[in-house]
Amino acid sequence: LPLWASYLARLYSWILILNHSGVLNWTMQSIGLPAPNIGYSETAMLVVFCYIWLPFMIIPTYAAMERVPESLIEAARDLGARGWRTTLDVVLPLAIPGVVAGSIFTFSLTLGDYITPILIGPGTSFIGNVVYGNIGIANNVPFAAALATVPVAIMAVYLLVARRLGAFEAL
């Protein structure tokens, strides 16, 4: 499924794939393997969360890694660094701003996601689900407002730590 397709269309597509009578179970049974039956489980929710939000982590990280000058990689190779050593010592430190930007995207988007646990999960409550339930069902707006500040506080602490470590200097 394309990244920019409708969010709900992608969720319902995953329901059709992971459901007990879905494409995954049907395919596994067709080739003689036992069906995994992961529909409406924590595993299904993890797969869907990764599918939906991982591109928002990969795109900024890739963009940051693409901006690493080739001359630095060549210099590391000339000095004897090979493979992973070049990646860990040269590429990764220069790509940290992209990794931080991607983690901010994914973390903030996942914190506010309440549709995926409702449609895919086994009834697990996330912060977004509790806020939604207290506004719409329980009509407890003060509690919902107080609880909605938790992700904001978590993001503020994360941004302060990232800023203190200098992750935003190259952005």
What does this structure look like?
There is one protein chain. The mean pLDDT is 89. With 171 residues, this protein is an all-alpha fold. Helices cover 71% and strands 0% of the residues. The chain has one domain: MetI-like fold (Orthogonal Bundle), CATH 1.10.3720.10. The chain starts with 6 loop residues before the first helix and ends in a 7-residue tail after the last helix. The protein is built from 8 helices and no strands.
According to CATH, what is the topology?
MetI-like fold
How many helical stretches?
8
Structural class: mainly alpha
User: How confident overall, as mean pLDDT?
Assistant: 89
Distance between the termini: 30 Å
Beta-strand content: under 5%
Q: State the shape.
A: flat
Following the backbone from N to C, one meets helices and strands in this order, namely: HHHHHHHH
Largest sheet: none
Query: What's the CATH C level?
Result: Mainly Alpha
Task: Estimate the helix proportion, in percent.
Answer: over 70%
Compute the number of strand runs: 0
- What is Rg? 21 Å
Quickly count the domains: 1
Identify the CATH homologous superfamily.
Answer: MetI-like
Second-tier CATH architecture? Orthogonal Bundle
Low-confidence runs (pLDDT<50, min 5 residues)? none
